[in-house]
Design goal:
By secondary structure, this protein is α+β, with helices and mostly antiparallel strands. Helices cover 41% and strands 15% of the residues. The N terminus is likely disordered.
């Protein structure tokens, strides 16, 4: 159990002890109430507390039954009341008010709870905090830290404040417990009640177990509470990715500064050049063609005929309203759009499609599908649900069904680039771009057997925006499905360029979008959170911005290729000037 703690005013970058400072335990603990072992004292007061509560309730019930005034008490009842107060004070002092509040106010950590932590780890975590030295990263201190006699300097780069590497005796014991396998690493958050401290302890334990340093991985300057139970488990730090801005992108009459998180040189600069060319020609126009997230469970029957019976039932328009009512119970935003089925022998794949408001919607559609499967069990009791996802969705995998039917937001974006801009800004010609696009993006991709990859580098832009705005980066697989078209117009003077992207999967609520950095990038685009006026408007706008940025990136890269500038630009902007032979390992 966690003892009562106060907030610390200092944190550390590493828990590796560099200086030993003796601790003097001169504070009175709740467990000092009896000269007995801690677990015996706890058992005594637990038993006393519940016994007197039961006794008093029984006595008061008897008084109510016999119409005896409650304020008339006997000697035994007075003794019981005193025992109740004493045991309550002990338990309150032992557990700590802050610890109880943290259990009530913190997000759920069921997935990190330990099933069998062992008696030794419980004793370690129940020890009273009597620290008088600077604590570990985000660790609490009950007393002011003593200033060190000489500065303690770390070899690690300081990111946000001057830090010291001093750890307490209790932290050292917990670290050893994790290293020895007594305390599971995943249970530290729930046991300590402090996410930053748990991260620091886990980090140090990992360094000792592996013998590898994490000195280059930042620990401070991040809100670990914000990812608990929803974004990342067992954190030991965070990775820094620079965010650049491309734009302004003039799209549908509005300007957007597009945030792109990437470590690839030239990417932001190239996209920015494409945005400039589009802006000089009056901007781009985008159209949302479809908006529906999908989930496809796999069910099995005893015969192919029974599987066909369910297929006919689900695809019958007369049954759609009934299915929609059952499906839509899962959320006030989820609205069933349709069900398409595919049979493989006696196995049936059910591809549900639904709108999901401003959320990307995977969890939302999964809950709706589960409702329908439960409903179908009544009329199809022989239906065996093999899995909630049967890969006919299809999520995070290149699939023709997404390329043809779409998944998430389907968007087409176009622009007409004036011939002068092609020559002066893009440094090439309309004829060269049209020819290169046909031979590279169309013919070349067909020769390679591409599936949805009829483009130059759509995934570059998609992934950079996804990381910056808190999307799921793995979904760039289907979100990057794109066909780039270029055609000479106005008697061959100007260039018509377009990108068609059938499965852009984005959301502006949920997941990583609620983190501070990603939320700031969404705010920059004007699509932070859920749209109050029109549910789903923000996520649809984000999908259009992604398509517009891809259009700019395609236009610029294709121009560089046509002009023979690709290698030169990458040698200039994508090469490190540092001498790697002298870089520290």
């Amino acid at each position: 159990m966690e003892s009562h703690r106060r907030s610390s005013t200092k944190s550390v970058q590493s828990l590796k002890p560099t200086k030993r400072i003796p601790l003097e335990d001169d504070s009175t603990k709740a467990s000092d109430a009896l000269p007995l072992p801690l677990y015996v004292t706890n058992a005594v007061f637990f038993t006393l507390f519940f016994s007197v509560v039961y006794f008093l309730l029984a006595r008061w019930r008897e008084k109510i039954r016999t119409s005896t005034p409650l304020h008339v008490v006997t000697f035994s009842e007075i003794v019981a009341i005193f025992a109740l107060v004493a045991s309550f004070i002990y338990l309150l002092g032992f557990f700590g008010i802050d610890f109880v509040q943290s259990l009530i106010l913190r997000p759920s950590t069921d997935v990190w709870n330990s099933e069998d932590d062992g008696e030794v780890s419980e004793v370690l975590l129940r020890k009273e905090d009597a620290r008088k030295v600077p604590c570990g990263q985000a660790l609490d201190c009950s007393l002011q830290p003593l200033p060190p006699s000489s500065p303690i300097v770390t070899a690690q780069k300081v990111f946000d404040e001057n830090l010291v590497t001093v750890t307490t005796k209790e932290d050292e014991e917990i670290i050893n417990s994790v290293v020895d396998g007594i305390t599971p690493s995943y249970s530290l958050e729930s046991k300590l009640g402090d996410c930053k401290r748990a991260t620091a302890i886990r980090r140090e334990a990992l360094q000792r177990l592996t013998g590898k340093s994490l000195s280059g991985l930042p620990l401070n300057g991040f809100d670990y509470e914000s990812i608990l139970g929803q974004c990342c488990e067992m954190p030991v730090g965070y990775v820094q990715i620079p965010v650049g801005i491309a734009g302004p992108l003039l799209l549908n009459g509005r300007e957007y500064s597009v945030p792109m998180a990437t470590t690839e040189g030239c990417l932001v600069a190239s996209t920015n050049r494409g945005c400039k060319a589009i802006h000089l020609c009056g901007g781009a126009t985008s159209v949302l063609l479809r908006d529906g997230m999908t989930r496809a469970p796999i069910v099995r029957f005893g015969t192919a005929k029974r599987a066909a019976d369910l297929k006919l039932y689900l695809e019958d328009p007369e049954n759609f309203e009934t299915l929609a009512v059952v499906f839509n119970r899962s959320s006030r935003f989820a609205r069933l759009q349709g069900v398409k089925c595919a049979i493989a022998g006696k196995n049936l794949y059910l591809r549900f499609s639904c709108s999901t408001g401003d959320a990307m919607g995977m969890n939302m559609v999964s809950k709706g599908v589960q409702n329908v499967l439960d409903f179908l069990q009544t009329d199809f009791p022989d239906m065996d649900v093999i899995g909630i996802s049967g890969n006919f969705c299809s999520d995070k995998k290149p699939a023709a069904v997404n390329w043809i039917e779409g998944r998430g937001k389907s968007v087409v974006c176009e622009a007409i680039i004036k011939g002068d801009v092609v020559r002066k800004v893009l440094k090439t010609s309309v004829e060269s771009l049209v020819e290169l696009n046909m031979l590279k993006n169309l013919t070349g991709s067909a020769m390679a057997g591409a599936l949805g990859g009829f483009n130059a580098h759509a995934s570059n832009i998609v992934t950079a925006i996804y990381i910056a705005t808190g999307q799921d980066p793995a979904q760039n697989v289907e979100s990057s499905h794109c066909i780039t078209m270029m055609e000479a117009v106005n008697d061959g003077k100007d260039l018509h360029v377009s990108v068609t992207m059938p499965s852009i999967e984005v959301g502006t609520v949920g997941g990583g979008t609620q983190l501070a950095s990603q939320s700031a990038c969404l705010n920059l685009l004007g699509v932070k959170g859920a749209s109050k006026e029109s549910p789903g408007a923000n996520s649809r706008m984000l999908a259009s911005i992604v398509a517009g940025a891809v259009l700019a990136g395609e236009l610029s890269l294709m121009s560089a290729l046509a002009a023979g500038q690709l290698v030169k630009s990458h040698m200039k902007y994508n090469r490190s000037s540092k001498d790697v032979t002298t870089a520290s390992s």
